[in-house]
Amino acid sequence: MSVTTEQLADVATLARLKLDPQQSQPLTHAFNEILSLVDQLQALDLANVAPMAHPRDESQRLRQDKVTETNEREAFQAIAPDAQEGLYVVPPVIE
Amino acid sequence: MEMQSIKQLSQALSDKQLSAVELTRHYLSSIEAHNDQLKAFISVDEDRAIRQAIQADNMLASGTAQALTGIPIAHKDIFCTKDLATTCGSKMLANFVPPYDATVVRKLDAVGAITLGKTNLDEFAMGSSNENSYFGAAKNPWDTNCVPGGSSGGSAAAVAAGLCVAATGTDTGGSIRQPAAFCGITGIKPTYGRVSRLGMIAYASSLDQGGAMARSAEDCAFLLETMAGFDAADSTSSNRATESYSEQINRDIKGLRIGLPRQYFSADLDPKVRNILHDALHELERLGAELVDIDLKQADLAIPVYYIIAPAEASTNLSRYDGVRYGYRCESPADLQDLYTRSRSEAFGPEVQKRILVGTYALSSGYYDAYYGQAQKARRLIAEDFQHAFKEVDLIAGPTAPGPAFALGSKTSDPLAMYLEDIYTLAVNLAGLPGLSMPAGFYDHRPIGLQLIGNHFQEGQLLATAHQYQTLTDWHSHKAPVFAGGQL
Predict the structure, then answer these.
(1) B1-488 maps to CATH 3.90.1300.10
(2) Does B337 touch chain A (CB under 8 A)?
(3) What span, in angstroms and rounded, lies between the C-alpha atoms of B451 and B399?
(4) In this predicted structure, what is the pLDDT of residue B71?
C-alpha cells in the first residue's frame, strides 16, 4: 500500500499535526518507504494466531477502587503553560 | 582516577580513602572538561550532586551505606527527576520540570547513589544514533566523528568517557544494547516488567523497559538490582521477587547451552564482526559453555512488526502533548485546534512526527486490522520462536548491531538504513526478554558488542555469563581516546 500527499495530510489532521508544505513531498516518500517495509506482513496467513498485546501475555493488574493519591493540583498547574484560579486556560471553544 | 569498578570505589569510600564529596567533585570536573566535546549530558546539577554526596558521606559515617552509596551516576533524560529539568531530548519538554521522581530515580536516591545530571538521547527515545536529539547529537568517545548509538547514546558516551561510573538507560528496540556496543560498555535491558516504568517518559508502552549501563557486568548488576522490583504504581510491573544479581555474579557457566541463531550468523553478517563474535564465543566455550546452532525462523518479522507496533503505541502516548497541561505551547493560538496542532507541529522533531503519522495510520479505521492487528499476531510468532529455542538452550548469543559505530550524518538521509541498525535487538523487546550487550573486540578501532539473550527473568544468568567472560578478557577495560583520567 502507499499513500498520496493528500492522504497523508488527512492522517496528519487526525494526529493534530500540520505538514510543512516544503516537506510534504519528501515526508510522503519516507512514509511510503516505511509502508513498503511493513507490507510483507500482509502476505502472512495469521487467521489462527491470537494477537499479543503484552510481551509476557499477562493482563494488567486491577487495583481496589480507592483514592490513594493526594491532590497535587497546585504542583501540576505550576508547570502548565497557562493556568489561573485552578483552571487550565485555553482559547475560547464556544463563541 | 583510573577505571575503578563500583566494588573498588565502594571499598575506597568505606575505607575513608576518599569521600563521596571528593569523588563527586572529580566527576563534575570531568564533565566540565569533556562535555562540550561529547554532548553526553543535557544538564548537570552540581548543587544537587554535592547535596547528595554530603548525605552519602553521612550514610558512610553512620554505617548505613550500601554498594551504591556515594557512587556518581547519571540518568537518561527520560526519567523524571523532581525539580530537575527532564527534556526527553525534545523541544516539547525543553522547559519541563517534573513535580515527581521516577521510581528508578527514587530507588537509586534512596541507597545514596549520586545523580550528576541527565544524559542526551534521541527525541522521545526514537532513534539509533542520538542525532534526533533537539539538543544536538552526543559523540562517540572512541571516535568523535561517529555516533554513540541511540537512543541512550548520552548514557553510553558518559560511561565510556569516564564522566560517570554508571548510568540508567531505556530500551524499546535496542536503545540500551546498541549504544553500549558502539561505546564499548556493558548494558542490560531486563525482562519487561522487571523495572518500574513510573516516571519513565513513554514511547511504546508494551516495549519500553529501563535498564543499566556501566563498564562491566558486575557494575550493571549493582545498578540493576537496585532499580528492579515491583511497583504498585506501574500496572505492568512484575510482582515476582527480586534477586541479588551481584551475589550470583560468580556463578560458573559450565554446561551452559548457548544457542547461535543461524539467521543472526547468516552470509549477510560482516565478516569482521563475525570473526570478533566467533572469538568471543570461543572464550565462552573455554569457560565451559556449549555452543548449539539454533533457528529463529521468524527473525525477518521483527522489523516490520516493530515499525507498526512501536509507532502505533507512540502515536497514542504522544497524544498527551497538547500544549495545555505541560510542555510547549505555540504563540497566540487562533483557537483550540490551532493550539493543539501548532504546539505539536512546532515542538516535535521530524522523526517523532513521522512515527506519530505511521502509528496514526496503522491504527486508523479501515487499516487497523491490516496493520496493527496483523502485527500483534505476528508478534506472537516471534515470541513463540524464542520459547521454542529456549527448550533447547539456556541463552542465545548474536551480534548487537550489524557493524561498529557509523559516522555522524551518514545515515540521516536514509531512514530505512537507520532502522536496519536494530535488526538484532528489536525481537527481544517484542518478546519481552532480557538482553545484554558486552564489548567483545574492535573493528577499525571502534568497539563491537556481543549480545546475550535470556528467557524471562534470567537477568542473573546473563550478568554472570558476561562477568565470567570479563574475568577472562579485558575488552571492557580498554580506554576510549576521549577519557577523563586524572588523579583525585
Answers:
(1) yes
(2) yes
(3) 5
(4) 98
